[in-house]
Amino acid sequence: MTSLGQNGIADGAIVELAGLEALIEPHDWIFARERADEIAAHWGRISSGKPAMFNGKVMLQHRAAIVDGVFRAGYFETDYAAFISWRDFGHPGPVVRNGFAMAALRAADGAFLCGVMGQHTANPGKVYFAAGTPDREDARPDGTLDLAGSVTRELCEETGLMLDEIAVEESWTAVIQPGRIAFMRPVSIAMPAEAARALMLARMATQDEPELADIAIVRGPEDAERLDMPLFMRPYLAHIWRQD
Q1: I need a surface site. Which of 33, 156, 187, 194 has the fewest CB within 10 A?
Q2: Which helix H or strand E contains 41, and what residues bound it?
């Protein structure tokens, strides 16, 4: 068993996984309880003028371990405002992570296809694969968290793609960063990148409030370097390109 606590796998590690198992369970998050006033004030500042930012419920990871290649984690529910404040305050307190699943979408010509976040979102201008912090829509009746389902749900919601237009692989790659773990799952579309981008943009144009402002085509390190990507994106892309 490999523990993911304070002294576990180092931030920056990239780990190939055989599977994911996630349980939703009670957890007393000290940060949210003790800093409620600061959280409310911060949320008021960052959400002002952005009605699309909704303080709903999300799931964060408070314990995790890798056992025989399977990532096993416990998640708890909290307010989105508390999550964003914790992120913006530098991840204070005992180890908690935003453990989210991403569709590492790749076109038939080998290029990756990433979303460019809209200006009305919490991450304006950032470029990364379709994803979302797990929430109640990812909860199963048996108390488990459906991270595999989150991959396709977020991709289809954000880009307008349909399930019969994509192929999802069984493998996972975890990219571990301070305060977060990106669980990447390879997804392919049987179209060249330019055509796939055009299809997604056309469908996004019909959405009432599209989350994405654009689709970026990433063919190599030079493309990745010029884009405003979060820390977990370039290491993952470099990892895949080394394997190609």
Answers
A1: 33
A2: helix 36-47
Report strand pairing: 180-189 vs 98-106.
parallel
**Residue 236 and residue 96: Cα distance in Å, rounded?**
21
Task: Flag whether pLDDT at 4 surpasses 90.
Answer: no
Cα(231)–Cα(91) distance, integer angstroms? 15
Contacts for 214 with CB less than 8 Å, ≥ 6 apart: 115, 116, 201
Helix, strand or coil for residue 147?
helix
Residue 211 sits at the vertex; the CA angle it makes with 122 and 100, to the nearest 5 degrees, is: 65
Q: pLDDT tens digits for 89-131?
A: 999 988 899 999 999 999 999 999 999 999 888 789 999 999 9
Distance CA 168, CA 148 (A): 10
**Closest to 147 in 3D by CA, of 124, 164, 168:** 168
Half-sphere exposure (Cβ direction) of 167: Cα atoms closer than 13 Å: 8
Per CATH, the homologous superfamily of domain 2-243 is Nucleoside Triphosphate Pyrophosphohydrolase (3.90.79.10)
pTM of the model as a whole: 0.91
DSSP-derived pairing of the beta strands 127-128 and 180-189: unpaired
Tell me how crowded residue 145 is: count the other CB atoms within 10 A of its CB.
24
Q: Residue type at 192?
A: P
Q: What is the pLDDT of residue 44?
A: 94
The Cα 118–Cα 115 span in angstroms is: 9
